[in-house]
Amino acid sequence: MRFKLFDPLRIEVDSQNRLLKVHYKPKGSRVYYDICDVKGKILLTGQLQDSDSNLDLSRLKEEEYVLLVLDGNHIKRKLFRWKLSQIA
To answer: What is the DSSP string of the chain?
Structure first.
């Protein structure tokens, strides 16, 4: 039995700056991402340039989304909720 000690794809929603911070160490030279709604419709797509990337969420409504990271034959998936923080 194998245990995974760490998750190779980590994300953090930065509501104040309207960013999705993506931390992923690529296995290949070209790594792409898709942000989809929960029904599977692709809303944003692009290429991850670094192991730490910031994706602009300002065009998305406040809902749940799925981040897909496509790295050669590997696909990683993360569900996240995009919600603006309450600013007083």
So the answer is: -----S-SEEEEEETTTTEEEEEE--SSS-EEEEEEETT--EEEEEEE-SSEEEEE-TTS-SSEEEEEEEETTEEEEEEEE--PPP--
